[in-house]
User: Fold these one by one.
Assistant:
Number 1:
Amino acid sequence: MKVEAKNLGVSYGTVWGIRGVTFSAEAERLAIVGHNGSGKTTLLSVLSGLRKPTEGEARVNGKEPYVRDDKWVAIRYSFEKPQFSIPVRVRDLVETLRANPHCQRVDELVEGLGIKEFLDHRLDGLSSGQAQLCNLLMALSCDAELVILDEPTAHLDSYRAGVIDDMISRLKGLIIATHDPEEGEAVADYFIIMKEGRIVWQGGRRDLFSKGVYEITLFDKESELPTGLDILHSLGAIVIARADEEFLSDLFRKGLIAGFKRAGLRYAYAESR
Ligand SMILES: Nc1ncnc2c1ncn2[C@@H]1O[C@H](COP(=O)(O)OP(=O)(O)OP(=O)(O)O)[C@@H](O)[C@H]1O
């Protein structure tokens, strides 16, 4: 998958949703990470072809997705806040998808996503998590050149979120927007961090893991921090610190910290805030 943007901007009247967005990502899975209002959904709306940019251009596999012609990229999009207003049952949606020869993964996903448990519920009466699961079923069960997911696990419990992340981390051709750097890191191989409509960091997995910077899990966030750590960010019981790996191994062996790992997207995200 190749996704490119050149000086991309989208304005909503006087407000710019995104501006000056330029990147070129050749990756199987791209994660767009950012806090609320940073421009993730706006960028996805252009990349999915739902919106024409106000300025600049975007290309997905060489084509501008918002220019409709017979060569447009087959994209499946799952929304952040799906709402179904059709008064039919989930079972009817499943049957409709099953009847489509391009949707070969329906049964596997109905089982894997736990949709079996609410097949007789009406689509217009689902909880937000159930609606999200049905939206994901529609996005993931049919053939597509590219799947675009906007906060796919925002309404899901941690078990279901894990199932989804594991599933989508195998896709070839995924763009995911998430406010959760852990989720981005778990599924993607190229990352864009957005802030106030602009890109503040981008890179691949090798760029991500900073040498000498670690995420350290404490047993008790109230306890005194071991000396010798250069703390960069404090995130509750997890701290991001510059430290020597041998020193951390020693703290771990002595039972003074619960664990540590190379800092990744959580660090890049914390740095960009
Ligand atoms: N329809 C709209 N009209 C006016 N401003 C908008 C509209 N949609 C988005 N914006 C503004 O554009 C900016 C980017 O919004 P966007 O929804 O793309 O961010 P986001 O990163 O997806 O946020 P969240 O994580 O909260 O969903 C925000 O300042 C938002 O207020």
Note: The domain at 2-208 is CATH 3.40.50.300 (Rossmann fold).
Number 2:
Amino acid sequence: MMRFDGQNADEIALRLAHIAWEAGRVLRGMENALLDKRIKDDGTPTTAADLAAEQLIIQRLDEAWSGVPVVAEETASTAQTDDCFFLVDPLDGTGDFIHGTGEYSVNIALIRGDRPIAAVVSAPAMGSIWIAGEKALTSPLPSGEGNGFDWREARVRPAPERDLVALVSRRHGDIATEACLSVLSIGTRRMTSSALKFCLIASGEADVYVRCGPTMEWDTAAGDHILTRAGGSVVGPGGAPLTYGHEERGYRNGPFAAIGDAALAPRLDLPVSASVA
Ligand SMILES: Nc1ncnc2c1ncn2[C@@H]1O[C@H](COP(=O)(O)O)[C@@H](OP(=O)(O)O)[C@H]1O
Ligand SMILES: [Mg+2]
């Protein structure tokens, strides 16, 4: 079975950047098409664009690293994981894709054991991309062929004493998340969709993102790794990092908080979720 011979995590992340850039071109080309949407069992929408981007990503991952399992949003139930596997959300924020806000992303993470080691989040309509292997980097998305990245380091900021910037889902709020946020001194709440929330914290533009409602591993793994390598963290109840590859619970995450500054961790009080404990 193909492994990652001679490639370090930063090189893998660069290859993932090209794949996400290409998938982003497919998605941009379908933005204004009249796409039929279907509502999945979890109540979230999916479209032909999700499928087209997923097929392309799976094909490119297979060309680059043949034989490494891929757990992707539209085909998760059929995948068998291994020590190394990819988690793929070809179109995170499908609701935003449909409604034209542009706040959607392509997320790909390589997991080894139960944690990510290389990842990309690209936001095709916003023109930005983030990657991480060892280092977290960000670039504007090239408009021509995918060779024109201009990478610079992504770094979190220290949390201000008060008036934190919190990122909240545009479409999926819940009471437990609000309770958690209410004990932090939030000055600004910015509605943001998809895994962009992790990346904005990784780039020092925001401080905290709390999510107690349902999410899936492919929603968080790539953003988790990018934020972690930019100096932040993503923690569950009790402060432990999230772990990935939980087929036994259908790849569902529990509650989590993404923070740029570790000093915020003691102020978090996430509920313990019985469903994924
Ligand atoms: N009831 C539910 N069950 C599982 N995941 C859900 C869900 N409601 C929302 N999500 C997840 O939340 C993601 C959107 O996050 P946000 O609200 O922050 O933009 C969705 O990603 P997709 O758009 O890829 O399906 C979906 O995976
Ligand atoms: Mg998603």
Note: The longest strand covers residues 84-92.
